[in-house]
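Hey, can you fold this one?
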Amino acid sequence: MKTKISIIGGIVLGIFLMYLAFRNIDVNNLAVIYRQTNPWYLVPLAFLLVLEVFMRGIRWKILLGSIQKTKVMDTFKLEAIGLAFNNILPLRLGEIIRGVLCARKLEISLITVFSTILVERIMDIVTLFILVVLAVRFDGYLGATDLNLYFWLILFVLSVIVLSLVFIERIILSDKLARIFTKFPRFADILKRVALGTKSFQDLKKTLAIIFCGFAQWSVNVFIFYFVAKIFNINEVIGIFKSIKLVFTTAVAVSVPGMPGYFGNLEFSISKVMSLWGIAEEVGFAYAAYLHLSMYIVVTVLGVFFIYRMGYSLGDLYRQSKKWKSEKKLNRS
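Sure. Predicted structure:
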């Protein structure tokens, strides 16, 4: 019941935000704006979108490498499949699906795979936060006067979380905690499997490679936003630092429950932020919709292509994800 309410609530919110973003837009003016863009720009844009997913695959390969050897193309395919299902299905089921497929392919624990996905998300937050700090440092705040205290507080919390992941194995094996874990063997077993997912951080070269791939991936993402600004001839306003802020805005928007693909969330949030920089509402909406549809189509088509290349179908994977979720609930009870 809660799941259905979340899905319906997300769809209603998405429709409402899309209405707010579109209500003052003149369709004729919107058509004129799109006619002024060069359709050939879609080719390099598609390449950049695929490159961003490929960078995700490289990082995930490194995270999984300390547990089981795998190929970059395999993690690239799984990343694309996960993102595609996030676009098609509600509740970010794509993360579950790519985790299940990875566990089966590499024949490793599902909890261990999900621990690497958790590390991915934490590293994403840390990397994006650092980029936002740089953007704020060189381009100023957005609608705020002094956020230094909040930045340092968030950085401290994130640092504690990252260090906990890095040293989780040592924490588990410490004498004091070992006695506690003997009373909760199942919990200790889960933590040990989670620790396997962070094993790459015990190697300095792999740690640096993970950090580098994270910054490379998000840098490509930022450049995508800047490139689309160039397509609409607003790159003099939307420079690299403002592109970082728009990427951050997008990350916040997709963290709010919405319809599959987060239509409405992105259009409303991006266009409203751009209006604060003096960009006309119609241009801001055109930019947001163009960017969103490009990302949605390229990533979804890529993911669906890999799904069928691996011998699966959309229906099969959806049913398997629901089955796994129900089994997980039964195990908890």
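Residues 22-332 form one domain. Let me know if you want another pass with a different chain boundary.
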